[in-house]
Write a structure and sequence with these properties.
A hairpin with a 4-residue loop joins strand 11 and strand 12. With about 375 residues, the protein is α/β, with parallel strands linked by helices. It is built from twelve helices and 14 strands. Helix content is about 45%, strand content about 15%. It is globular. It folds into two domains: about 210 residues, Rossmann fold (3-Layer(aba) Sandwich); about 150 residues, Rossmann fold. It holds the Pfam family Peripla_BP_6.
Length: about 375
């Protein structure tokens, strides 16, 4: 047989094998991410990660011999658009489940849609209200802001800092964080002497910081997502404020350091472990998953995999796990998600139940600090 004939025969065989491997219809997974707009620093790595993981799953033979098909829409961070696109995913695209949206406000807006249509949603947002109280069809992968607040307050308690000033963004994420900061203060012996907000598009917060500088605050807690917190870091630096500045997990990526520049030095915040994966002990049950994710993302996108892309990695892998243990119908996926135990993901070790659709404990967070333009673990 000539080489040319052999090559054509082999190619035809490979194509037939590939087609037969995915002879059944694909399992459609919907995704809503803020790929553009102010929250693009969340949505872009989430979209990239979801595509990467699903491509790898399909290359390895899919799930139960069936291909996963990802249908992604860009919400641009707009809650109204998110609702419209969620409806499109369910009615037109006939997806079996949805991952996302990227922000708390969008997630809260989409919840009534998925609950009514009985389609499982795995949100990539952090607001506690997304899953508290429990909604039958709604789960999440981002660590709860309630856990993040606890992690910050534990550190303040350890340092004997009991008087704080709050500066929170006036959106869904900021409102949820502010609620938790106020609700948990008493438990940790914390007194709040200043409680101020800023707008998501504000470009100068010197007025709020000047007010805080005149208070007796021993620490400042800023709650928001980029770029606002980076502006606050710069403003505080410009004003010569030496009061310790804590941020939320909403900025736990290298992007924050890039935006804040020298003003980021010394800032602390609670973060998922992926930011410091290489610094974790080998005994950490998450370390293997974290390093694999970071390596994969670097290979595909020439950038570091971060905390936010990790939320999408967890969402896709949790869905894969649920389908493998059951079927691809929305009802089966929902049931198996709720029975997930000890799933070692990027965001933490997930155990869902009928009473807990967030699935993580406070060990999902480490406290990190910016030192020499990089993240280190605070002991």
């Amino acid at each position: 047989m000539s080489f040319k004939r052999f090559f054509l025969t082999f190619t035809a065989f490979t194509m037939l094998t590939s087609v037969s491997a995915f002879a059944a219809a694909p399992i459609k997974i919907g995704a809503l991410f803020a790929v553009t707009g102010p929250a693009a620093f969340l949505g872009e790595p989430e979209r990239n990660t979801a595509k990467m993981v699903i491509e790898e799953i399909n290359r390895a033979g899919g799930v139960k011999g069936r291909k996963l098909e990802l249908v992604v829409y860009d919400t641009a961070g707009d809650a109204t658009k998110a609702v419209q696109l969620a409806t499109k995913l369910i009615k037109n695209d006939k997806v079996s489940a949805i991952i996302g949206p990227s922000t708390t406000g969008e997630s809260m807006a989409v919840i009534p849609v998925v609950e009514k249509e009985r389609i499982p949603l795995i949100s990539c947002s952090a607001g506690s209200k997304i899953t508290d109280p429990v909604k039958k069809w709604v789960f999440k992968t981002a660590q709860n802001d309630a856990l993040a607040v606890g992690r910050i307050y534990e550190q303040l308690q350890k340092q004997k800092l009991t008087v704080v000033a709050l500066l929170t963004v006036s959106d869904g994420f900021g409102a949820s964080g502010r609620e938790q900061l106020k609700a948990q203060a008493g438990k940790y012996g914390i007194t709040i002497v200043s409680d101020d907000t800023y707008g998501p598009k504000d470009t100068d917060m010197t007025a709020q910081l000047t007010k805080i500088r005149g208070s007796r605050a021993q620490a400042i807690i800023c709650w928001g997502t980029n770029p606002g917190p980076a502006v606050i870091a710069k403003n505080a630096h410009q004003l010569g404020i030496k009061t310790p500045l804590y941020m939320s997990h909403g900025v736990s990526s290298k992007k924050f350091i890039q935006l804040a520049g020298d003003a980021a030095e010394g800032i602390r915040l609670p973060s998922g472990k992926v930011l410091v994966a290489d610094l974790l002990p080998n005994s950490d049950s998450q370390k293997k998953s974290l390093l694999e994710f970071v390596k994969d993302y670097q290979k595909h996108y020439k950038a570091e995999g971060d905390h936010f892309g990790g939320h999408a990695w967890d969402a896709v892998m949790l869905l894969k796990n649920a389908i493998e243990r059951g079927g691809d119908s929305p009802a089966s996926i929902r049931e198996k998600l709720e029975k997930t135990t000890q799933f070692h993901g990027v965001g933490g070790t997930f155990t869902y139940s009928a009473n807990d659709h967030a699935g993580l404990g406070k060990d999902a967070f480490v406290l990190v600090e910016v030192r020499n333009k990089d993240w280190v673990i605070v002991k």
